[in-house]
Inverse folding.
């Protein structure tokens, strides 16, 4: 059987579209399957922001990562990675609970400054020094 150039192009186009749809479905499935567990919520002094500490696990083979996000008036658990800090216990080297959620203390120093205290043994994936106009002080402990 001989195919025309337009039939081959159509076939390639369909394969690309189906592959893209499959990729998007897997990606959304990954995002939607993440389990989020809120550890603490800390409201800023002027009550405009909330610092949320939460653990996320996105699969049976992965442990929890610990996240800190500064949110504007959003109370429900975030469904995304932390916007100021993302760490894990570095194979249980840093203090963590039974799930592997790393211990992080949050303290508002002023309405524009927050301190995060955590072990220097964590493995850091994201560490921002500023977000939403708030300076983030990272205090590392032994």
């Amino acid at each position: 059987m001989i195919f025309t150039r337009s039939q081959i192009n159509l076939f390639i186009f369909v394969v690309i579209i189906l592959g893209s749809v499959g990729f998007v479905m897997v990606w959304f499935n990954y995002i939607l399957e993440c389990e989020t567990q809120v550890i603490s919520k800390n409201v800023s002094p002027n009550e405009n922001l909330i610092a949320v500490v939460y653990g996320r696990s996105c699969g049976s083979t992965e442990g929890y990562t610990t996240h800190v996000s500064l949110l504007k008036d959003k109370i429900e658990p975030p469904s995304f990675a932390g916007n100021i800090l993302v760490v894990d216990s570095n194979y249980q080297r840093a203090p963590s609970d039974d799930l592997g959620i790393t211990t992080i203390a949050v303290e508002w120093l002023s309405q524009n400054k927050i301190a995060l205290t955590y072990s220097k043994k964590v493995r850091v994936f994201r560490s921002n020094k500023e977000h939403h106009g708030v300076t983030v002080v990272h205090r590392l402990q032994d």
In short: The mean pLDDT is 87.
